[in-house]
Amino acid sequence: MISFLTYTAVRFASFLANCFPVSFTLWMTARTTDWVYGFLKERRQITLENINRVFGDSIPPERKTALAKGAFRSAALSMVELLIVRKIARNAGERFSISGDQYLEEAFAKQKGVVMTVAHFGSWEYLPFLSFLKGRRWSVVVKNIKNPHVNRMVDSLRRVMRVHPISKDGSIRTVLTELKKGHGVAILIDQWAGDEGIWVDFFGTSTSTTSIPARLAKHTGCALVPAYCLRRSPGQYEIHVEKPYHYDTKTPGWEARITTELNQLWEHWIRLHPDQWLWGHRRWKDKPRTIRTVSQQTISTGRADEH
């Protein structure tokens, strides 16, 4: 009953979001989030703690508060943007500019598949418009929403962008199949990975990080291509595709090295646009009692290696 009521509330929010012009809907979302910011004490505290961990005394307190509010806005906008994706898709060619598309063409030309390493940064839900606008087949590894009604709704909205959601539960076999066919798979790498991650630095502090991209590269020889989608104004976006990351899986320490260097790339982009990253996530936690051992073994198709 509760799950259905929640679904009904989300459907109603979607209805409201689609009643108005895109620019007004997104403007109102930002303004409402500024008001809500004052009431979400725990999430606000996590956000400010993370910002302080990264920036320390290099920026004043008022700047940290501004970044926290910006991060709240960015997270809220990402949710609402997904709800209005059909309206965005009607004239997507006018709303998106794409830089670095040639790097994807070079990566796909190798015919070993492409892993796009992405983060909860900017309008991350709109990165699949690359598939919509360029015609390539893309899948994205997603975490299922506990509410099955909402989960089906969100999956259908993502498919509007012609992307194929792959559930994180039991995903590895499907990912390997997609890469074997020469297709693209997007994987989020910026969140806490628990006892299945490896411990490498992120913004100068060791934390659990998924090494799935590194292990996929070892196993398949796929290209690793970072990409992100920035907001420039309400309803206007820039998709940036970066040069394929050059990796070496033949020397000792390849897994930690690749994972660390991918983290460092994201550190750079987050510092450039700090208000567009999801600071409200508990990215840094204490080490669990058991952690996965870093090795040079290739990736397994069993669930133990999935995140």
What does this structure look like?
The chain has 307 residues and is an alpha/beta fold. The chain has one domain (2-305). The chain is built from 12 helices and 9 strands. The strands form 2 sheets. A 7-stranded mixed beta sheet has the order 1-9-8-2-5-3-4. Strands 6-7 form a two-stranded antiparallel sheet. The longest helix has 23 residues, at 61-83. It is globular. Mean pLDDT is 93; it is low at 301-307.
Task: Furnish the topology, listing elements before pairings.
Blueprint lengths: L1 H16 L4 H15 L4 H15 L5 H23 L1 H6 L1 H4 E4 L1 H9 L4 E5 L10 H6 L3 E5 L5 H12 L3 E5 L4 H9 L3 E5 L9 E5 L2 E5 L2 H9 L2 E11 L2 E6 L12 H19 L35
Parallel strand pairs: 1-9, 2-5, 2-8, 3-4, 3-5
Antiparallel strand pairs: 6-7, 8-9
Helix pairs in contact: 2-4, 3-4
